[in-house]
Amino acid sequence: MTAPRLLPAAAPALLHEHAWLTESVHATSEGRVRYVRCAECAARRVDLDAVSVTPASAISREIG
């Protein structure tokens, strides 16, 4: 039997809540594709705002 090979421990990541900023938005047949990046680190991601088949509805209410 051979000894198990252990991988070196990963460097601890700096944890923070990402502050996503939109870099660009493009309309597609699936919806809007949004390219975003974190304001604090180099993280990037691509979001899809899917096309909705239901009419828009308010998520807040009028005050006063």
Layout: helices, strands, pairs:
Blueprint lengths: L19 E9 L2 E8 L5 E7 L14
Antiparallel strand pairs: 1-2, 2-3
Mind explaining what this structure looks like?
Helix content is 0%, strand content 38%. It has 64 residues and is mainly β. It has a domain at 20-50. Strands 1-2-3 form a three-stranded antiparallel sheet, with no helix packed on it. It is elongated. The N and C termini lie far apart (76 Å). The mean pLDDT is 80.
Number of alpha- plus pi-helical segments: 0
Low-confidence stretches: none
Question: How far apart, in Å, are the first and last alpha carbons?
Answer: 76 Å
**What class would the helix/strand composition place it in?**
mainly beta
Share in helix: under 10%
Instruction: Please state the CA-atom Rg, rounded to the nearest Å.
Output: 21 Å
Mean pLDDT: 80
State the major sheet. 3 strands, antiparallel
Q: Return the string of H and E elements.
A: EEE
The rough form would be described as: elongated
The total strand number stands at: 3
What fraction of residues sit in β-strands? 35-45%
Kindly summarize this structure in a few lines.
With 64 residues, the protein is mainly beta.
Keywords:
64 residues, elongated, mainly beta
